[in-house]
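To: structure desk
From: M.T.
Subject: fold request, one chain
Message: Could you run this one when you get a chance? Sequence is below, nothing fancy, just the single chain.
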Amino acid sequence: QVQLVESGGGLVQAGGSLRLSCAASGRTFSLADMGWFRQAPGKEREFVAIINWRSIGTNYKASVKGRFTISRDNAKNTVFLQMNSLKPEDTAVYYCNANSDGVQYWGQGTQVTVSS
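Reply: Done. Structure tokens follow.
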């Protein structure tokens, strides 16, 4: 089992920045990758960014590329999402995701609200 705890959400004006953190505990030695998804009201959960735990390879949703940066601290089993130039359409609940031994784990979610 892997437990995920997110932090760092909040309210920010358009053009501002936020940094999300997600700390993993439990079977972290078998982590394959970690990432972020988001879900806006009335919409399905969507992929935002992912980072491979060993190769440092990353991938992003097209609309956040160049504005968001995913990174990780292996020693602390923590993944970060630096979000710059935020837009009102980035408003959503952001969920941390981890893939360990082929099983998907989710955090509880953290609200990000971008005002225009």
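Reply (cont.): The CA atoms of residues 56 and 71 lie 8 Å apart. Let me know if you need anything else for the meeting.
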